[in-house]
Amino acid sequence: MKLEFDGIDQLIAEIDRIEGLTDDLKNKALIAGGDLLRDRMKEEVYANGLHRLSGEGQESLIRTEPKDGELFVGTQGGKKQPGFYLYMHEFGFYNVRAKRFVAPRPFASIAYENSKDDILNAYVDEFRKGIGMS
């Protein structure tokens, strides 16, 4: 990163401009990273042992809007929401009829771990666009 200034006034003005953009930029960066993670999770749902029947699990994955500097990617909560069963497949569950524990078939954690670098790159790209460095 290379910044050149002739005087202290320009430096102060640039810092004020960058500080004024931070909340909006943070939200844009979170949205970019959240969209990337949501798309990767949708790709992984049926890649690790789950079978596609209706596609409801894949379509139930959403991204919330940023609030207080955070957003969430996953399914909407509640047992009556589409894709509620993805939680059980991610962490495993006890099958009452079979009287045994069904092992987890994670997809969200795999998608997240494999996407960390790409999410950070999406953040950096958004910040560069907002500051005018790209």
Look at the helices and sheets and give the structural class: mainly alpha
Indicate the low-confidence ranges by residue numbers.
Answer: none
Quaternary structure type: single chain
Coarse morphology: elongated
Tally of alpha and pi helices: 4
Order of helices and strands: HHEEHEEH
Beta-strand content bin? 5-15%
Percent range of helical residues: 40-55%
How many angstroms does the end-to-end distance come to?
11 Å
What integer value in Å does the Rg equal?
A: 21 Å
Q: Give the spatial strand order of the biggest sheet.
A: 1-2
The count of DSSP E runs of length 2 or more, i.e. the number of strands, is 4
Largest sheet composition: 2 strands, antiparallel
Q: Round the mean pLDDT to the nearest integer and report it.
A: 84
Task: Please tag this protein with its features.
134 residues; mainly alpha; two-stranded antiparallel ribbon; 4 helices
Write up this protein.
- The structure is a single chain.
- It contains 4 helices and 4 strands; from the N terminus they run ααββαββα.
- 53% of the residues lie in helices and 7% in strands.
- By secondary structure, it is mostly helical.
- The strands form 2 sheets. The protein has a two-stranded antiparallel sheet with strand order 1-2. Strands 3-4 form a two-stranded antiparallel sheet.
- The longest helix has 37 residues, at 8-44.
- It comes from Sporosarcina quadrami.
- This is HK97 gp10 family phage protein.
